[in-house]
């Protein structure tokens, strides 16, 4: 046996083993790919997934038949040393008709469901049961408004399971693209017209989303979470958000934080009341209970929040939030204050 072949074979063996290992490790986790479009968890995503599988089916069929025929012909009709010159031919109408008709048919099998699905994605769901949400893209965070509930929030979109959500999206600055892989497809957003997207989450859970259009320095850190909840939990959330802006329990450190919130100018950009949108910086009502801060970039821990307040330009260079010369003690007081909201 050829030396090179042996080496290649052991390399292929090692590669196979490694692949198997990765598959085993990965599938042992509950949902190792929360941002995979291949695990649809909502009606919109399922529709797109079905189209993908249809296309994949036809592509696989064509690949297997064509490559199979090619390999068969290569071996069956391979030349031997004393073969005579084969018969010379030119053109075959029948064969040409067949190889035009079959691909045309296959393309039709793909094109019809594709066009149908594209049109369906643009049908905006209407009716009383539909929850309307306005999405506003900012460099580099997401604003969500529920016009019927009078609520505004940022980077965390709570929705009830089993209820259709209709999004109307615009941007405040440059182009962004709204993408929740497991629930809905990706759609660009513009500042001179609105685009739409809709979805219905089939099961409760956290679904990460991401800006999918390069929009500047921190494009990669422009993420968000969709939190699909049972309808009771969603109502609780709405009630809590509607109550923000009211009085909060006073403690010495939180009082200091409250003063700093005004003195340092935080209040100039951030509302702490979900019923009062401001539109400059993210609305901070409910910040104490969010999973992440800085648009999905850091977990919402006290240490991270303090770091973010103290050094926004270190955490996300180029972000609108300026360095305000906050000391560590001041940052902790601000954290204590924000935790009450
Ligand atoms: Cu916004 Cu990329």
Protein described:
By secondary structure, this protein is of the alpha+beta class. Helices cover 40% and strands 18% of the residues. The protein contains 8 helices and 12 strands. The strands form 3 sheets. The protein has a 5-stranded mixed β-sheet with strand order 3-2-1-5-8. A 5-stranded mixed β-sheet has the order 4-10-9-6-7. Strands 11-12 form a two-stranded antiparallel sheet. The model has no long low-confidence stretch (mean pLDDT 90). Dinuclear copper ion (CUA) is lined by residues 137, 140, 176, 211, 213-215, 219, 222. Dinuclear copper ion binds next to loops.
List its traits.
five-stranded mixed β-sheet, Immunoglobulin-like, 341 residues, 12 strands, binds dinuclear copper ion, 40% helix, alpha+beta
